[in-house]
Amino acid sequence: METVVTAAAAQPATQDFLPLQGTDYVEFYVGNAKQAAHFYKTAFGFQSLAYAGPETGVKDRASYVVRQNKLTFVFTTPLRSQNPMADHIYKHGDGVKMLALKVADAADAWKQTTARGARSYQEPITLTDADGELVLSGIHTYGDTVHLFVERKNYRGAFMPGFRKWETLYQPAETGLLYVDHCVGNVGWNQMNRWVKFYEEVMGFRNILSFDDNDISTEYSALMSKVMSNGNGFVKFPINEPAEGKKKSQVEEYLDYYDGEGCQHVALATNDIVKTVTELRNRGVEFLQVPSSYYADLLSRVGHIDEDLRPLEELGILVDRDDEGYLLQIFTKPVEDRPTLFFEIIQRKGAKSFGKGNFKALFEAIEREQELRGNL
Ligand code: FE2
């Protein structure tokens, strides 16, 4: 049993004790890192950046780093069975292990969070090579997921010490993906508020939006969600828990197949969602489809939008509006055989919310997939 949350934070909310500069990278533990990197290059347009493995002096694993604009993904696989990473993959399948956050002071980030009750994953460590030094530290969050704090202001290399630049002849064009908009965690029954409290007290985040099972339920499946944001809004972590419905919640299906709590989806931002999704589809990325009836009354629900309706309908892109503007979004099917991790592609045009108006149509689409898997 983990102890995650201790006493209430002593700091007033006005002082950000954990200033975050954004998402540094997302690291996935996968069964075959070489092939995973190839998939994300081919299908999503990531570019080769760095590699670590036996050839660079790392004996127990291989890691491939790919990048597109401000998005950095790392795919890591163990080289032998006697390795905790192998246990992670056996239990969870391919999935997100590290949500790494960029900070100015990784030692202080670790000190501040562990003093507030975070369980340490990695004490501050300085990694050095000819390109400078990089400081890393880390804490545990939900499930087996980890937040690393990365301080790279004194590092000039491709990624970090231990890695070498990865140059390949094969380099598919980018697809317009820009940066991580948000990362969603699925946690167990009645665990949402525990993790809300963790992000508030241990990391200084605040709850900016809440959805209960009245907002997010269809005839069958339900969930509850609270969106946590850090002080400057660069890092947003919605937390979902399953809710009782007539049949199995999509969050429960995730928990069953991931065998525990973990990252449900990573939302990737674009400035031109029609172009990006057209490109992704042409490269074989599969998306959830809503019925065409969704588009019949779309404009009466969301008002004027700059985009033509036809390509949105052809691609299955959803639209929602809040007080500040609107957003366009679409969700991939799970990107592995277990119905676990998927991606969202999102274009914000002023809106800071998460597409609440699309939940019903979207969750009905998810349930059709659950039904096909025999999990509803
Ligand atoms: Fe999302």
Describe this structure in words.
The chain has 376 residues and is α+β, with helices and mostly antiparallel strands. 24% of the residues lie in helices and 33% in strands. It has ten helices and 17 strands. The strands form two sheets. A nine-stranded mixed sheet has the order 6-7-8-5-1-4-3-2-9. It starts with 22 loop residues before the first strand and ends with a helix. The relative contact order is 0.14. Mean pLDDT is 93; it is low at 1-11. Bound molecules: fe (ii) ion. Fe (ii) ion (FE2) binds next to strand 10 and strand 14.
Stretches where pLDDT falls below 50 for ≥5 residues?
A: 1-11
Report the order of strands and helices: EHEEEHEHEEEEEHEEEHEHHHHEEEH
Count of separate DSSP helical elements: 10
* Bound ligands, named by name, code or SMILES: fe (ii) ion
Instruction: Report the strand count.
Output: 17
The residue fraction in helices comes out at 10-25%
Please state the CA-atom Rg, rounded to the nearest Å.
20 Å
Summarize this structure as a short list of keywords or feature phrases.
alpha+beta; single chain; nine-stranded mixed β-sheet; eight-stranded mixed β-sheet; 17 strands; 376 residues; binds fe (ii) ion
